[in-house]
Write a structure and sequence with these properties.
The complex is a heterodimer of chains A (about 100) and B (about 575).
Chain A (H helix, E strand, L loop, with lengths): L1 H9 L1 H34 L1 H4 L11 H37 L2
Helix pairs in contact in A: 2-4
Chain B lengths: L3 H11 L3 H9 L12 H24 L3 H6 L6 H12 L2 H14 L2 H10 L1 H16 L4 H5 L5 H35 L3 H48 L5 H11 L16 H15 L3 H4 L8 H33 L13 H6 L16 H50 L6 H25 L5 H25 L5 H21 L1 H7 L13 H17 L4 H8 L1 H10 L10
The chains are: A mainly alpha (about 100), B mainly alpha (about 575).
Pfam family, one (chain B): SSF
Keywords (chain B): Cell inner membrane, Cell membrane, Ion transport, Membrane, Signal, Sodium, Sodium transport, Symport, Transmembrane, Transmembrane helix, Transport
Main location (chain B): membrane
Chain lengths: ~100, ~575
């Protein structure tokens, strides 16, 4: 186990995995925070915009903006899982293989 | 009975983190009248109970080791776990409360739904796979990974128990009130039935039964809500615009229901709302435990993906159902009558309908809508699902509390790791029975207490005591036992004492003339305080043990990143 750990640390692929994955995770986290707090700030300061009807109907801009926020949470998790379960897990598998 | 929107609105102005809690619990607050006995609902509920007891029997035969008991043998798939997590999150109160909020104030309900959801992607990106790679049965496994076991586990177990207890009281009181409303059953009986069934699920079936009860309930709730939303939209030729148009004609707030109202008034409480939701969710022991029921980090990620999808879909349905309630309950039926509104109040207002006239309070909006779209049978079904939902959530909470006692306090602190698996499970089962009995009594004792406050307490404690220690243990190499333990205790003690000194307890519950602390939600102060304490007491710790703990971060880091040496799935 200890030797394994040393070999993993020394493996350039490990550095690559950690850097790529954490950059990706933080980017997506920031994207989610920007979308959510953007929505909340619109609620606090942009009531007029959210309450403006789209075209001549009664449906306001608030409805698609709210739905977009919900759907974006799902899509962002999907993007992360797709890359993490594919590319990152493959890289991880190689690292584990090489450390044996 | 004050309306939900007033209650939540007041909380929104005064507090940040208490808002989600208020929505969660508002469904079940205040005095409720007992309704006529609802036989369809009772029959359907009995079917659910029999089916889940059957599952418990099946699970009991497969539950042998500690890993089976705490983590369902690690054999739950990502998809199943996603449903179970969604089930933990879609409580009866959030279903009825958010639908009721949309019914009374329209768009504002959507703001809450969004807040409930956005914590999940963050949990996935930053916490989920590390948690799975490092942990075994409880989140304390992760938090104490490279630290001194006795002080860390004691602190984490106290944080878990505090969170679970307050959440459990709120659910028990909520269960009693909802069942009075839905089934026409006595409060006392309702609380006893919930307590006995949850003891049965957890002691005999462990995590496997708890998970499957949660999955079944999630499927029932999602199907029922889908049918309702479909039926509502079908009345308008599947045109949301047509539904919104009718809603603005019958609702007294008219087009006001299509825009943000008075719920969120200033950005500070709005932002603190979001923070409390994210951090609170990532510190709830019964949610964190679910990450140990899957085989590896890959399945843990998938769980969150599916959970986010189901929860998001559910909140969209709740929004449609809330508007359905507006158009169905506030408009006259074919005979010109309003069957779901209080006749006396309607007459007093000169026949002009208002959402506050709804029979049983605004939290009954979804239930009445079920009646309006699906008749008696579907009304019974939705009532039974609401009861099933409470049962599933309390079972998960009880298991989390029992694990904190048996796995953290008993096995690690008292027996110092020398307890056999058999003894550990036995302690867990005894604790489950004790928690069950205690929560029945607490449910009775707290019958007329402010439930919103207790859920708020649970969220603030989770966010101030559990979450900072958990996050820092995984991300900060320089943390030491001293920093973590002091930070955790400071988070716990400060959040509990500031809550007691705040307006809800000091003024409303204890009857003092003025609160010692002006805010209902101390999370904005206690969360950063806990992080600050962890940082300060860690960097000033120069002991030999502290040096060793910093050295040990490397091994923890490799395991958290790669899963090297992580707990795998057991062969079943």
């Amino acid at each position: 186990m200890k030797e394994n750990a040393q070999r993993i640390l020394a493996n350039p692929k490990f550095q690559e995995l950690v850097q790529k994955r954490s950059a990706f995770a933080w980017t997506l986290s920031i994207a989610m925070l920007v979308i959510y707090f953007g929505f909340i700030l619109l609620v606090a300061f942009g009531k007029g915009f959210l309450g403006t009807p789209i075209g001549s109907g009664v449906t306001t801009w608030g409805i698609p903006v709210g739905l977009f926020t919900i759907i974006s949470a799902f899509i962002l998790t999907g993007i992360y899982v797709h890359r993490a379960n594919g590319e990152f897990d493959e890289l991880n598998r190689q690292i584990m293989e090489e450390s044996k | 009975m004050r309306s939900l929107v007033n209650r939540v609105g007041a909380a929104a102005v005064a507090a940040g983190a208490l808002i989600p809690a208020s929505v969660h619990a508002a469904a079940v607050e205040g005095p409720v009248q007992k309704q006529a006995t609802n036989f369809e609902a009772i029959v359907m509920f009995l079917v659910f109970v029999l089916a889940t007891l059957g599952i418990t029997y099946w699970a009991a035969r497969r539950t042998k080791s500690a890993k089976d008991f705490y983590a369902a043998g690690g054999g739950i798939t990502g998809f199943q776990n996603g449903l179970a997590i969604a089930g933990d999150y879609m409580s009866a109160a959030s279903f009825l409360g958010i639908a009721g909020l949309v019914y009374t104030s329209g768009f504002d309900g959507l703001i809450f739904s969004v807040g409930w959801l956005v914590g999940w992607p963050i949990i996935l990106f930053l916490v989920a796979e590390r948690l799975r790679n490092l942990g075994k049965y409880t989140f304390a496994d992760v938090a104490s990974y490279r630290f001194q076991q006795t002080p860390m586990r004691t602190m984490a177990a106290c944080g878990s128990l505090a969170t679970v207890t307050f959440y459990l009281i709120a659910q028990m009181v909520g269960a009693g009130k909802l069942i009075q409303l839905l089934f026409g059953m006595d409060y006392l009986w309702a609380v006893v039935i919930v307590g006995v069934l949850m003891i049965a699920y957890v002691t005999f079936g462990g995590m496997l039964a708890t998970t499957w009860v949660q999955i079944i309930k999630a499927v029932l709730l999602l199907s029922g809500a889908s049918f309702m939303a479909f039926a509502v939209l079908a009345k308008f030729g599947f045109s949301p615009e047509a539904m919104f148009a009718t809603a603005t004609q019958v609702h007294p707030k008219a087009t006001g229901i299509m825009a943000p109202g008075a719920l969120i008034t200033d950005p500070v409480s709005a932002i603190s709302l979001g923070m409390a939701l994210m951090f609170g969710t990532a510190g709830l022991p019964h949610i964190l435990m679910r990450f140990f029921t899957v085989s590896d980090a890959k399945e843990a990620r998938k769980s969150v993906f599916y959970a986010t999808g189901f929860i998001g879909y559910f909140y969209i349905l709740t929004f449609i159902i809330g508007f359905g309630a507006i158009v169905l309950l506030l408009a006259p039926d074919a005979t010109g009558a309003y069957p779901f509104l209080d006749a006396a109040k309607l007459a007093a207002a000169g026949g002009k309908p208002n959402p506050s006239m709804i029979i049983g309070g605004s939290n009954m909006a979804a239930i009445h809508t079920a009646h309006a779209v699906g008749g008696d049978l579907f009304f019974g079904f939705i009532s039974a699902v609401a009861f099933a939902t409470i049962l599933a959530v309390v079972a998960g909470l009880t298991l989390a509390g029992a694990s904190a006692v048996s796995h953290d306090l008993y096995a690690s602190v008292i027996a110092k790791g020398r307890a056999s698996e058999h003894d550990e499970i036995r302690v867990s089962k005894i604790t489950t029975v004790v928690i069950g009995i205690v929560s029945i009594f607490l449910g009775i004792a707290f019958e007329n207490q402010n439930v919103a406050f207790m859920v708020g307490l649970a969220f603030v404690i989770a966010a101030s005591a559990n979450f900072p220690v958990l996050l820092m243990s995984m991300f900060w190499s320089r943390m030491t036992t001293r920093g973590a333990v002091l930070g955790g205790w400071i988070g716990l003690v400060s959040s509990v004492s500031l809550l007691i000194m705040g307006p809800t307890v000091w003024k409303s519950v204890l009857g003092n003339p003025a609160a010692l602390f002006p805010y209902d939600n101390p999370g904005v102060f206690t969360i950063p305080l806990s992080f600050l304490a962890i940082w300060f007491f860690s960097i000033t710790d120069n002991s030999k043990a502290a040096q060793d703990e910093r050295e040990a971060y490397k091994a923890q880091y490799i395991r958290s990143q790669t899963g090297l040496g992580a707990e795998g799935a057991s062969a079943h």
